[in-house]
Amino acid sequence: MFKKALLAAASIAAVTAAQPAAAEDLKDFRIGIIGGENEADRLRNFQCMSDKLPEVLGVEKVSLFPAADYDGVIQGLLGGTLDYAELGASGYAKVYLEDPKAVEPILTTIQTDGATGYYSVMVARKDSGITTLADLKGKKLGFADPDSTSGYLVPSVTLPAAIGAPIAEFFGETGFGGGHENLVLEVVKGNFDAGTTWASGVGEFKDGYTSGNLKKMVDKGIVDMGDLVQVWQSPLIPNGPIVVRTSMDTDMKAKFKDFMMALPESDPECFSAIQGGDYKGFTEVDASFYQAIIDARRAKIGS
User: Fold this and answer.
1) How far does the signal peptide extend, from start to end residue (predicted)?
2) What is the pLDDT of residues 118-135, one digit of tens each?
3) How confident is the model at residue 10 (pLDDT cuts 50, 70, 90)?
4) CA nearest neighbour of 167 among 176, 177, 157, 179
5) How far apart are CA 199 and CA 196, in angstroms?
6) What average pLDDT does range 86-101 have in this prediction?
7) d(CA 34, CA 147)
8) Which DSSP letter does residue 103 get?
9) DSSP per residue over 7-44, as a string?
């Protein structure tokens, strides 16, 4: 798995080193896929995009670049060598704070209950006896990824008020799990006493909710929700954006946006695969939708 991660990182580095094609000469539409899930699963989930988009956009091919972590895609977007990606709000904030003109957020998902947000949820092993935040004093907390909204930024900003102390003083130790999927697996193994991941918060915990990392893991059969308990849930977080390279040809942007807006009805299976669960569809957004997260990232991390 480590070897695959290195290869994924190398592929992102290679595309980042290349000069971006002029919009009118674009032959290869390049999709960045953030880390946090098994690479083979990510490639399989996005294969439908590789199959459909060449005809829609008039390009010769669509290339998929699964990064080893969130930052691999972020750097590709900043370098102008990726044309489209789906980011968390904090990942977009990082891009915006480094170069507000690098990408445009155009769409975000709508939950089955009509909400345009989701939650950070903290889970622990059910047999650990941990049921509240107070039970975690002095224990080891895992975060998903430094650039994850639900897996790091929002918990780091909101947990201190919930626990009544700075995170570094309350918990005995903190660390990163190497993405959402691996973090939950590390909690199950007992390497973290609890960990933060993302979920729609709609539906039942026993099912992994209707969408999110837990739902994807349940659907793949790699986690049994009966082994976990939810300890904490954040305030509502804005659903992450679909972003496109700002310098992309206007006509191509419009064709891509129209394709995505229609996808929930034109190909529900593809829509569910790339989004990781059940959603109603997409709605239009712009940078202002993420201003609170941009401000939070600027205050907490600085970039």
Assistant:
1) 1-23
2) 999 999 999 999 999 999
3) very low
4) 157
5) 10
6) 97
7) 10
8) E
9) HHHHHHHHHHHSPPPPGGG--EEEEEE-SSS-HHHHHH
